Amino acid sequence: MAEKKVTEQKTTDFVAETTADGNFIITREPIKGANGKQLKTRDGRLYFAYVLQGKLRNRPVKVDFSPKDKGGYLPLDLVFDVSEKVELYITEVTQEINGTKSKRTVYTVNAVDGDGLVWKAEVKPTRTSDRDMLAMLINLIGAQVKTETVTDETPATA
Fold first, then answer.
1. Which of 113, 143, 116, 118 is nearest to 52 (CA)?
2. Residue closest to 30 by CA, chosen among 74, 77, 67, 70
């Protein structure tokens, strides 16, 4: 009975904004202070939050994303300068080095500019709760996660 309810929810209710390929859409939102103005860094750059908005059991949820490292804010801002809404690509990478296999999930945001040039930056869910909510959204819409195997001979792409 519960499985039937989930199936109905997949087809009738809004879960999250996606593309035709089934990729989630990430948006950039300004971070505002108590006075309502957008916060700035010491050198004058604006602060932004990178979020996936959706609904789980009719409750609005936000999944926050941040760059993979501290230097990743510039590439992320360059991607969002192309478009305010970008696609999130999720890839499960299996890597084998010296006979040891390791798995990791790579999250990449991509935008294509007017010249057809692809701009991309690697991101990660900010908190463990964000990763959990993202997993729930993936399960609810039945999104397919791309898998990739990297060996010693294969150059790592992510």
1. 143
2. 77
For residue 32, give every residue at least 6 positions away whose Cβ sits within 8 Å of its Cβ, in sequence order, or none: 38, 39
CA dihedral (5, 10, 11, 15) in degrees, to 10, reads 130
Can you give the pTM of this predicted structure? 0.76
Which residue is it, tokens 């700035």? 40
Residue from 133, 136, 121 nearest 63 by CA: 133
Given phi > 0 = left and psi -120 to 50 = alpha, else beta, which region is 142? left
Cβ(129)–Cβ(64) under 8 Å? no
Could you give the CA distance from residue 59 to residue 63 in angstroms, rounded to a whole number?
13
Task: Give the span between the Cα atoms of 58 and 74, in whole angstroms.
Answer: 35
9/3 Cα distance (integer angstroms): 10
How do residues 20-74 score in pLDDT, each as one tens digit? Answer: 777 899 999 999 999 999 999 898 888 999 999 988 888 899 999 999 888 888 9
